[in-house]
Write a structure and sequence with these properties.
The structure is a homodimer.
Chain A lengths: L7 H7 L17 H12 L6 E7 L4 E2 L3 H9 L5 H10 L5 H9 L6 E4 L5 E2 L6 E6 H32 L4 E4 L7 H14 L4 E2 L2 H7 L9 H5 L12 E2 L6 E2 L2 H14 L12 H13 L5 E3 L5 H18 L6 E4 L4 H18 L9 E4 L5 H10 L5 E4 L1 H4 L10 E7 L2 E2 L16 E7 L5 E8 L11 E4 L7 E4 L3 E4 L2 E4 L13 H14 L2 H4 L8 E4 L1 H14 L8 H7 L9
Parallel strand pairs in A: 6-7, 6-13, 10-11, 11-12, 12-13, 17-22
Antiparallel strand pairs in A: 1-5, 1-14, 2-4, 3-5, 3-21, 8-9, 14-15, 16-17, 16-20, 18-19
Helix pairs in contact in A: 2-6, 3-6, 4-5, 6-7, 6-14, 7-8, 10-12, 11-12, 12-13
Protein name (chains A, B): Nicotinate phosphoribosyltransferase
Pathway (chains A, B): Cofactor biosynthesis; NAD(+) biosynthesis; nicotinate D-ribonucleotide from nicotinate: step 1/1
GO molecular function (chains A, B): glycosyltransferase activity; metal ion binding; nicotinate phosphoribosyltransferase activity
């Protein structure tokens, strides 16, 4: 059972695969029925049969979660406590089965995968797992768990990036709305992968090196009553050359100047003094990073003038305020109004770049609201997105599943009454074919024994199920999709796990390379996924052999017929 | 800073509060802006001000997550590595601030909470946290994270239990669709709390003692080709008195008998032999727990007759098969047809209780589909529910928030342009008043200084915002809602954390005690939440004082007015 290089753990060490990010990702993290089946396979002597399984993506998806899967198998081992627990819940199983589990690791498993951060399409396998059937069965649940949410939220993040555009700053603020601590940590990691710039989650920043962002909340503003609450009012200038003894007085002077400014025609009256105190106090703590939440009381009547007074006072001392955050109200209107004030003050008081200060918006944003803001016109530079991003409101789960496609070199096909559950059988190689303009044209799946497609050579791409749909393609460039990330006992060269930054880069690059009509929000053109002529013939001969004869038109039989005319690709 | 009994850790040990379930629940699990604010408070010397904060539930909710919050504060401490990381991301902060963080724990924090598993209603605080403002600020994000999803999924589970009815078995199958490992573990824990009977998640079974369930998948069935693949065909009878040398032959005999049975009029023809092999092999491994997934090929033509043949063969040897699982197709129709066959065979072959075998259904079920099945009529005994349960499709996030309600004994109210964000200020006591029939009538919030309501004594309950809505209530029984779970340096008696089973019991009991019209699926009657006359006066005097004078009808000003006529309670 042990791999050529010794145990899986030794293998992991040799390849510097660390522990899974989540300490919960242990060998017990699987469905009970996987152990039931492992026992039944073991009992029948089938546990060492070699099985080949594929998880599939359901729609246009960014594939994520691979690194965690590889770390999972690298660390896959039952502790003695695990064994004792399993014995207690499965008392009917023979002792020798538990001895088998004690010795089980993933030395003998091989994992082939599309690189993490790739754009993937329905029916193309994301990953192929080969190994003893009992072990592969135990990996099914944790792999699907580690891939499903990861891919879903990365895809969601990429969609947000696409609608916001390249120039905007995207901040992930989902910690308090995710499924517990680790749901949140996954969200932060994979939103960054999908194109976000930073997170509010400090632990995720620590674990993955993701940039952190965050200033203050409404509660911070509410906690102040008056300017008297600031004990030390002195602030050193940025260059250290002088000390302003009473920064609060300076702020008050600026507030008066703003209120009297001709160019603003006296639009600002009394502002909230506790808010002013909170801003002044915050600026004293963070003179180099002053970004204020301006909607605790009233954005235009209090928040903006208070902020500007503090920002201009900071400017006197050589600092440059960062900007504001809006967390309620009409974000399009408020951002435009705020920008007007900033620009007016830039001119009025000759403060360079004051008009360009960052306006961050953060109130229950999602793809649709950002799209709506774009259509209305707005002056937001940076979006803070939480709930809709991390819970993936528009589609709260991804349908990735594991399919048994081959056992002991015999292809297997699962025929279900539900057509969406039918898989493409056998071990396959998958290629992405690129056209002249550099766009990917089509993905093609082939039998393992077939020669690879070559650049400049014509190849027939067939729809997997519809006989009439076929086309010849001459690719300019060919990319093999499935690569070896865990060679097990095979001597195949292994792809090293890239860094999170590299994966993020791949994701951004892949999305840019796609023909824009494939990723547009409205009525995107479906990307074509095809099979080779040989694989087409093979699938259809297998279907004819496997399908039991249906001899009547009963209700159940009708369900059964569906699988003969699937049309879920286009 | 240290508590009367020494450090928080010592306190935790004394009360046997263990580590949080999730190893990720460390002091760094918070939003960056909490540290920014902690620094700003510290810088302004306000960090030790005593703040009082409340998270609120947004709708009818089962409150969950308390135990994890208490464990979190019991273990709240920054490691030297945490400090180094924080210094690296906040280089602008003074060193003395990090010294302050090094010494920070939750000895000086007090937590009052509604017991976990309680049914709660909008506007009543679930929890009150009192302590130094900088520390309470750091707790906001993790508490909201630990409570939001926990309460959401517990509520969702309770709703599923309500629609399924008491007699059905509910199984949580969400591991592969949750937000990563810990999302899944939380889902398993809180679904059990909300009334589920078991989970498929082995690790959750191990961590929380939740019963485990699971048999086999479609892949297991697909992995077999023929009956020849079963090497050891012998099976000992249940009482150990004899050995059946060829169980497979016995199964085949039974299959023939079923096919020829008069009472079935030959409805069964050829069945799928690989499925038969998989069932026979599984029965040999689990003769005492034989439950088969019958829809891999064709439920009525293959799965049911194959299952019955194996079940009847087991019966010959003194075993009792458990039943079947349906994972596709028309679950109402198939369960009724399967039940008919079981009952017919019970009579035909005189096999007691064969008609009562368990029928489990598990295909993308949710509250609505179970309700639809109930209306159609079905024979399902047990529901396996995954995606819709754990992702909470119908509402993927709960709006629990933390509100600053008091600082240094001064009440604080947050006035937002968004009316839903307005809170009820000041430290409050909350009571549930019960009527003659034992149903809760109304929750009432009171000022801390007021005397508690008493059974048999008339008390005025007012709508918090509408002057005309008020009623006198004479409670038969009064329950104080907020109890002390973490006394900090106070000498208040502390409520011990109950076991998961006890919390589940409370949840079931509370739901049963509610007037049925409050929890019915369609147009439920809103439960009344009220304030005392004194609290009403206090809130409204505070509003008058806090609201800035609005002197024009600009757009922003209109937003601002909204808060004067909130009507979100009914």
């Amino acid at each position: 059972m042990a791999g050529a290089n010794g145990s899986a753990a030794a293998e992991a060490a040799a390849h510097r695969v660390g522990a899974p990010t989540n300490p919960m990702a242990t060998a017990l993290l699987t469905d009970q029925y996987q152990f039931s089946m492992a026992y039944a396979y073991w009992k029948a002597g089938k546990h060492a049969d070699r099985a080949v399984k594929n998880p599939f993506g359901g729609e246009f998806t960014v594939f994520a979660g691979l690194e965690e899967c590889i770390k999972f198998i690298a660390n896959f081992k039952f502790t003695e406590d695990d064994i004792l627990f399993l014995q207690s819940v499965m008392p009917m199983c023979e002792d020798a089965f538990f001895d088998y589990l004690r010795k089980t690791d993933c030395s003998d498993v091989e994992v082939y995968s599309i690189p993490e951060g790739s754009v993937v399409f329905p029916k193309v396998p994301l990953m192929r797992v080969e190994g003893p059937v009992a072990v592969v069965q135990l990996l099914e649940t944790p792999f699907v768990n580690l891939i499903n949410y990861a891919s879903l939220v990365t895809t969601n993040a990429a969609r947000h990036r696409h609608v916001a555009g390249k120039s905007k700053v995207l901040l992930e603020f989902g910690l308090r709305r995710a499924q517990g601590p680790d749901g949140a940590i996954s969200a932060s990691k994979y939103c960054f992968m999908g194109g976000f710039d930073a997170t509010s989650n400090v632990l995720a920043g620590n674990l993955f090196g993701i940039p952190l962002r965050g200033t203050h909340s409404h509660a911070y503003v509410s906690s102040y009553m008056s300017l008297d609450e600031i004990p030390d009012k002195s602030l050193k200038s940025k260059d250290g050359s002088r000390v302003c003894k009473n920064f609060v007085s300076l702020v008050k002077e600026w507030l008066q100047k703003i209120q009297l400014a001709d160019s603003l025609c006296g639009v600002f009256g009394e502002t909230n003094q506790s808010e002013l105190a909170a801003f002044a106090s915050y600026a004293l703590a963070f003179p180099t990073n002053f970004l204020a939440l301006v909607d605790t009381y009233d954005v235009m009547r209090s928040g903006i003038p208070n902020f500007c007074a503090v920002a201009l006072a900071l400017h006197d001392l050589g600092y440059k305020a960062s900007g504001i955050r809006l967390d309620s109200g009409d974000l399009a209107y408020l951002s435009i109004e705020a920008r007007k004030v900033f620009r007016t003050l830039e001119k009025e008081f000759n403060v360079p770049a004051f008009g360009k200060m960052i306006i961050t918006a953060s109130n229950d944003l999602n793809e649709e609201t950002i799209d709506a803001l774009n259509k209305q016109g707005h002056e937001v530079d940076s979006f803070g997105i939480g709930t809709y991003l991390v819970t993936c409101y528009s589609q709260a789960a991804l349908g990735c599943v594991f399919k048994l496609v081959e056992i002991n070199s015999r292809p297997r096909i699962k025929l279900s009454e539900d057509v969406a559950k039918v898989s493409i059988p056998c071990k396959k190689r998958c290629f992405r074919l690129y056209g002249k303009e550099g766009y990917p044209l089509v993905d093609i799946m082939m039998r393992e024994s077939e020669p690879s497609p070559k650049a400049g050579e014509r190849i027939l791409c067939r729809h997997p199920f519809l006989e009439s749909k076929r086309a010849y393609v001459v690719p300019q460039h060919v990319e093999e999709l499935l690569q070896c990330y865990w060679p097990g006992t095979s001597n195949k060269p292994r792809v090293e796990l890239p860094s999170l930054e590299e994966i993020r880069g791949r994701c951004m690059q892949q999305l840019e390379k796609l023909r824009p009509d494939h990723i547009r929000r409205l009525n995107p053109t479906p990307y074509k996924v095809s099979v080779s002529a040989k694989l087409y013939e093979f699938i259809h001969s297998l279907w004819l052999n496997e399908a039991p004869v249906i001899d009547s038109e009963t209700k159940a039989a009708k369900h059964r017929y569906n699988i003969r005319t699937p049309c879920f690709m286009e």
